[in-house]
Amino acid sequence: MRPFDDIDRLAKNPALDKIAAPARDLVHKVLRRQDVKDALHGVWLGHPLHPVLAQASLSFFASAGVLDVAPRTRRPATVLIALGLVSAAPTLAAGWADYADGHEEQQRVGVVNAAANGAMIAGYAASLAARLRGRSTRGAIIGWAALAAGVVGANLGGHMAYHQAMGANHAEGYPHIGPGDWTDVGPADELPEGEPTRRIIGDVGVLVVRRGETIHALADRCAHASAPLHEGSIVDGDGRGDCVVCPWHGSVFRLDSGSVVHGPATAPQPTFRTRVREGRLELAVTGYPGVPAS
Questions:
Q1: Is 106 exposed, middle or buried (0-12, 13-18, 19+ CB in 10 A)?
Q2: CA 216, CA 197: separation in Å to the nearest integer?
Q3: What would the DSSP string read from start to end of 85-127?
Q4: d(CA 245, CA 151)
Q5: DSSP 3-state assignment of 72?
Q6: Residue 292's pLDDT is what?
């Protein structure tokens, strides 16, 4: 049996919803400011922030575990553990922000991941307390136990990121599979004014919105979690052009460029070039996410 088979059982266990759902609701209540959520999701970075912070925190702890093997290096190990505990605060905040906008299966694994990471943090706090009292050997033993819990948490986090695609760019394939040649998708005058509609080009769906003589086209599947953007709403982007709001988790993208205005999405929506010839709308993928269509 492969290790991830057991993790998949966690993802399919509805009993975990008794913990996962209240935790999700609590995070939404605490994280009400959109700018804070965007910062924690990593909108400013262009990809999720949590994995970067998690690697830093675990690196501090793992390095301390290595130094603890030699008694004379336990003082610098204490410094590393202190740094790891300090870095854990933003790491946990970013992780919970991503968790709250995940699917049920991801959240079920996420609460177990949080439990493992919580055990790690508690263990390292106890380890640091023992070291500060001069009990370096006791602190080292507790630290190694905490590191073991951290390894379990890291494995669960990796499963969520790579097996469950949490935080992955779900629209990345559009520039590679969308037709680069102009493709007829129907009469232009059939497009309703200012309403999101869906057209098929090649093997992919495209969100199309007409504003007067201007027609915008974006990849229809949201980069965050593959939600159908044509089921979303069109809003004004604070005077900077029209935007589409994802119907599932509320990500906001600019129609003219596909760029992210608000998360949880961090990657832009791929755009399509548009033109009208003899009353027929034609589309062609630009090839690069975030490049304005023309």
A1: buried
A2: 11
A3: HHHHHHHHHHHHHHHHTS-HHHHHHHHHHHHHHHHHHHHHHHH
A4: 37
A5: helix
A6: 46
CA–CA distance, 111 with 106 (Å, rounded to integer):
9
* Count of all residues that appear for the chain in the document: 294
Q: With b meaning 16 or more CB within 10 Å and e meaning fewer, what string describes 246-285?
A: bbbbbbbbbbbbbbbbbbbbbbbbbbbbbeeeeeebbbbb
How many alpha carbons lie under 13 Å from residue 130 in its C-beta half-sphere? 18
Separation in Å, CA 64 to CA 129, 130, 146, 252, 270? 15, 14, 11, 41, 43
Structural tokens at position 46: 């262009």
> Given pLDDT bands bounded at 50, 70 and 90, which one contains residue 78?
very high
Query: d(Cα 116, Cα 149) in Å, to the nearest integer?
Result: 6
Of the ranges 79-88, 117-126, 171-180, which one carries the lowest mean pLDDT score?
171-180
pTM of the model: 0.88
User: What is the distance, to the nearest Å, from the Cα of residue 14 to the centroid of all Cα atoms in its chain?
Assistant: 23
Residue listed under structure tokens 């034609």? 282
